[in-house]
Amino acid sequence: MHAIDFKEIQEKLSDGFRPWQRSFQFWARATDIYTGYKVFQLRMNFVKDVNKHEEMWERQHELAAHKVYSMCSDLGGFFLKIAQILGKPDLAPAAWVRKLVTLCDQAPATPFDAVRVVLEKELGKSIEQVFETFDEKPLGSASIAQVHRARVKGDKRDVVVKVQHPGVEKLMMVDIRNLQIFALYMQKTDIKFDLFSMTKEIEKQIGYEFDFKREANAMEKIRRFLYDNNRKSPVLVPRVFPNLVTRKVLVMEFMNGIPILSLGDEMAKRGINPHGKMAEAAKFNILHSLSQAYGQMILKSGFFHADPHPGNILIGKGSEVALLDYGQVKELPDHLRLGYANLVIAIADNNASLALQSFR
C-alpha cells in the first residue's frame, strides 16, 4: 500500500475553508441577514394595518430562515452546531426552527484516506490489525466527527467508530471568534441581552467536545447511573470499548434504530396511521422514556446529557429510545439541582411562594 501524506490530506481538506475565506463568507452572509431585518423594520413603520404585521413578520422570518440555513449548510463545522442550538422553539422564530432542525448530521464527510490516517495514528495500529470489518462509507457526519460501522477483531458485535475531522478544532475557533464579535455588536445596537456571555459558554462547551476520552467517561457515568437506578433503563446508552478510546477516536456499541425525525416516514411505509392508537401509544412511550431519563439525570444525579437534538435520538424495536453523543454534558451543583427540583414541584402544586423561594 502506498504511503499516505497526512499533511497533504489536511491541506486538501482545508483548501476551501481557509480562515480568512470563512470569515469573509460569514460576515457577508450575516450582514445580509441583519440588513434584511433592519430594512424590513423600516418598511413596517409605513404599514398601518396591524392585522398584516404578523403575516409580514412570518414572511420575513421564512426568508431569513432560508439564508441562515444556506450559511450554516455551506460553512458547516461550527455553524452546524449553531443550527442545532437555534433549531429549538425557545430560541428562534418558528420559521427558523422548522428549517434548521433538518440540518442534523449533514456535515460533509472526511475522505476515507484521511480517516485511516487519524485512526492509525491514534490507535498505533493499522485498521486491519484492529478491525475485522470497517465500512469506508460513514453512517453519518456531524460538525466535529463522523461515524463508521465496524467490527472489532475477536468480537462478533457491530460497533460504531467515531473519528474526529482533521483540522476542525482550529477552524471552529475562527468561527467562534467571528460570532463573538457579531454578538458584541448586536447587544450594543439591537438586543438588550448578554449574547457575548452566551457565546463564551458555547466556546467552553464546544472545547470539551474535542476530547473523546472525556466523552467516553461521561457516557459510562450516565450509563451506570441509569442502569443502576432502574429495573430497566428508560433509554439505551452505548457501551464504550475503553481500550479503543483516544482524544480523537471513540469506539462504542452499535445501536440499531430509526432517527426520531424519520419515524413518521417509517410508520407510513409500514401502513401505520400516524394518528391511530398504535402510533399514539408509541409516541407516548418515547416521550415518557425521554422525560424519565432526563428527570432522573437532572433532578436525581445532576449529571446529564446536554445535547438532545433529534440527530442524537434513535427509536428501536418496541419504541425503545437510544440516546447518542455525550460530547455535551453538564453537572449541576447540589444547591442548583435541589432548587430546580423544588421549582418543578412548586409549579406542579401551583405553590407560588415555594416557586419564588426556589427561584431565589
UniProtKB/TrEMBL annotation:
CDD domains: ABC1_ADCK3-like
Keyword annotations from UniProtKB, A to Z: Kinase, Transferase
Pfam families tied to this protein: ABC1
Superkingdom as given in the UniProt entry: Eukaryota
All copies of domain Protein kinase, residue ranges: 133-360
GO MF entry, a single one: ATP binding
Name by which UniProt lists this protein: Protein kinase domain
Organism: Arabidopsis thaliana x Arabidopsis arenosa
